[in-house]
Design goal:
Layout: E1 18-24, H1 28-39, E2 46-52, E3 57-62, H2 66-73, E4 82-88, E5 103-105, E6 108-116, H3 119-125, H4 138-148, H5 153-163, E7 166-174, E8 180-186, E9 191-194, E10 198-202, E11 214-217, E12 223-227, E13 230-234, E14 245-247, H6 263-269, H7 271-281, E15 283-284, E16 287-288, H8 297-302, E17 305-310, H9 312-329, E18 332-337, H10 338-341, E19 352-358, H11 364-375, E20 379-384, H12 390-394, E21 397-400, H13 413-432, H14 438-448, H15 451-460, H16 462-472, E22 477-482, H17 485-501, E23 504-509, E24 526-531, H18 537-549, E25 553-558, E26 571-574, H19 584-601
Helix pairs in contact: 1-2, 4-5, 7-13, 7-15, 9-13, 9-17, 13-14, 15-19, 16-19, 17-19
Bound molecules: fructose -6-phosphate.
Fructose -6-phosphate binds near residues 313, 314, 363 and 499.
């Protein structure tokens, strides 16, 4: 047996920033600012750009939104065609002008994503004190590059990397080479794209699609040189490295708000289409098919234990799926929060398959859990939405969700698409493990095909949820109760409500109420119940009575065919009828809409809730 005690090593820190670099025939200012807007969803508190005017490299930055930066940049009259940009999410060092990127020291202008762990030591060793104005680590890399720069960028980069410790995506311009951009990375991502007249790099693929559908990920510890003439990659010995091109299936149009007031609504509305796309991508002859992704029958046969690792909403998808894997496929499944994984000493054996789930594919805790699992020799499978992301690249097998770009911080369509892929995996395992015949699996798939229509039906009734939201908007606390699958649906529903409406919302397994939480219930406390499971309706009904007896106002979101079993008069929102275990789809869309409209009623910034970032690359 193998254990994972050695996973307790220190995990690297990282900063959630957005980076972009551009060389081309278009006006660099416009392209960089547009690109930074496309990276805004990652979360940030400062923004900056640097342009090459031919004479000098001009820096504009502010501890503020890209919209403010745009105003500053209006002063820039020169027609620059080369530039770099950055959005910073402060972790070390305050949100201030000085700490914003780009940094400029002597000949070097630089943006950085990551953390230079030994920066204090480096300041001391190389006597950099007098050259630094910021309180962060990134400027130290800039000062070192300047110190080592003797007209040879490669040499300066290699020398700098030989002394810094930590993680980085570094993008640099040297002031006597204003037609060139250099970049190098370790852990923090950089993806690159080009067409005949333009070259671009960025932290993720969002801004690249305007350049080309083809892109490549900059390999770690390889130096990129970008100029009008082209893009070249070099290893530290100066040998040219090959670019491994991939195709992007997102386009810029999908990233537009398309007339919706918020991305969150657009993404809720898209669920019919993206669920259909995800389902059809993995089904042949009404049977789950993962051949293209190289998931062999052997893998299904030899995996006797599943360990799911994820964060936030993706973790909730994993929790729901645990029940499915165990009930339907009889496959022992454990689910871990990625941030806790390394401390929990999970018992894993040679037949354990580690399944990581991530929309962004960049969540640092999930990525580290994946890396540790690989180091320990386990097979890894990921369910990821963003193509070319680190998790997708580093897992042994990857199944993409075809949700398209998810821009709103609150995850909606990615969650339902993750569940769709998980259902297909469950049925595939159920077949291999002789729990279902091929025909039975095919029948289940036919049921799954109803899901996109069911979620569309809920979306079309959005006004009902909008009305309902008016009743909730002034709540301070909300409690959600449910049993079995309903409890797991509510964990996600409560997260949606918390993050976009800022209402303190807790989900409880109804049976647990009497073990403590019922003490919170008083006259007029609002309790939302979820009732979608026939077997549990009578117990769930008793739990509703218990809270009503203590003065709670109860509103039940329920499967219509279960209404007849309710003996009590309570407010009801009827969902629609699917098989019990598929009810998660219409139910969660209803809760997504409720959370969304409560946030709208409160006049909140629905797509960018306070303190949150879309891509969490800080552990
Ligand atoms: C909540 C939400 C987060 C993410 C979490 C993991 O709506 O979006 O809880 O689910 O940060 O992110 P990924 O799935 O990108 O690893």
């Amino acid at each position: 047996m193998m254990d994972v005690s050695s996973l307790k090593k220190k995990v690297e820190n990282n900063i959630m920033c957005g980076i972009v670099g551009y060389i081309g025939t278009n006006k660099a200012t416009d392209i960089l600012l547009e690109s930074l807007e496309l990276l805004e969803y990652r979360g940030y508190d400062s923004a900056g750009v640097a342009f090459c005017s031919g004479k000098n490299v001009q820096v504009y930055k502010c501890p503020n939104r890209v919209a403010v930066l745009k105003e500053l940049v209006k002063e820039q009259k020169e027609d620059a065609h080369v530039g770099i940009g950055h959005t910073r999410w402060a972790t070390h060092g305050s949100v201030s002008y000085k700490n914003s990127h780009p940094h400029q020291v002597g000949q070097v202008t630089l943006v950085h994503n990551g953390i230079i762990e030994n920066y204090k030591e480096l300041i001391h060793t190389y006597h950099l004190e007098d050259q630094l104005v910021s309180s962060g680590d990134s400027e130290v890399a800039c000062a070192l590059l300047n110190l080592f720069y003797k007209k040879d960028p490669m040499e300066a980069i290699i020398k700098t990397l030989s002394v810094i410790e930590g993680t980085y995506a570094l993008v640099m311009i040297f002031s006597d080479r204003q037609e060139e951009i250099y970049a190098v990375r370790k852990v923090s991502p950089i993806v690159v794209s080009e067409n005949e007249t333009e070259r671009m790099l960025a932290s993720d693929v969002m801004p690249l699609s305007r350049i080309s559908k083809e892109y490549f990920t900059l390999p770690e510890q390889v130096i990129l040189k970008m100029s009008k003439e082209g893009i070249h990659l070099y290893d530290f010995e100066g040998h040219e490295v090959e670019k491994k091109k991939e195709r992007l299936d997102w386009d810029i149009e999908q990233m537009n708000q398309q007339g919706y007031p918020y991305y969150m609504e657009k993404e809720i509305a898209e669920q019919k289409e993206v669920l259909q796309r995800t389902l059809l991508s993995y089904v042949e002859d009404s049977f789950p098919c993962f051949e293209r992704e190289a998931l062999t029958e052997e893998l299904f046969e030899k995996s006797k234990h599943l360990v799911i690792v994820a964060c936030g909403t993706s973790y909730h998808a994993g929790l729901y799926a645990k029940n499915l894997f165990e009930k339907i496929a009889h496959l022992k499944t454990d689910v871990y929060l990625a941030s806790e994984f390394i401390y929990q000493e999970p018992v894993m054996e040679e037949d354990t398959l580690v399944l990581v789930i991530s929309q962004s594919g960049e969540t640092i805790d999930t990525l580290e859990a994946l890396r540790h699992s690989k180091e320990m020799g386990y097979q890894t499978l990921s369910i990821v939405n963003v193509k070319g992301s680190s998790i997708a690249k580093e897992s042994d097998y990857t199944l993409y969700t075809y949700a398209g770009p998810e821009i709103a911080v609150a995850s909606t369509k990615a969650y339902t698409c993750q569940l769709m892929v998980l259902f297909l995996l469950v049925y595939r395992f159920a077949y291999t493990r002789n729990r279902f015949t091929k025909e039975e699996v095919q029948q289940e798939i036919e049921e799954l095909k109803k899901v996109p229509y069911s979620v569309e039906d809920i979306y079309q009734r959005k006004e009902e949820f909008q009305e309902c939201a008016k009743e909730f908007k002034d709540e301070k606390d909300l409690y959600m109760i449910g049993r079995g699958f309903d409890y797991y649906i509510l964990l996600e529903a409560a997260l949606k409500m918390k993050e976009v409406s800022y209402i303190h919302t807790e989900a409880y397994a109804s049976g647990e109420l009497k073990h403590g939480p019922i003490a919170l219930i008083e006259q007029d406390t609002t309790v939302i119940a979820c009732l979608t499971q026939k077997d549990l309706v009578s117990k769930a009904s008793s739990n509703m009575k218990e809270v009503r007896a203590r003065g709670a106002k109860v509103i039940a979101f329920m499967k219509p065919s279960l209404e007849k079993y309710l003996e009590q008069k309570i407010s009801i929102i009827l969902l629609n009828d699917l098989k019990d275990d598929l009810m998660v789809f219409p139910a969660i869309v209803a809760f997504q809409l409720l959370a969304y409209y409560v946030a709208c009623e409160k006049g909140l910034n629905v797509d960018k809730p306070r303190n949150l970032a879309k891509v969490v690359t800080v552990e």
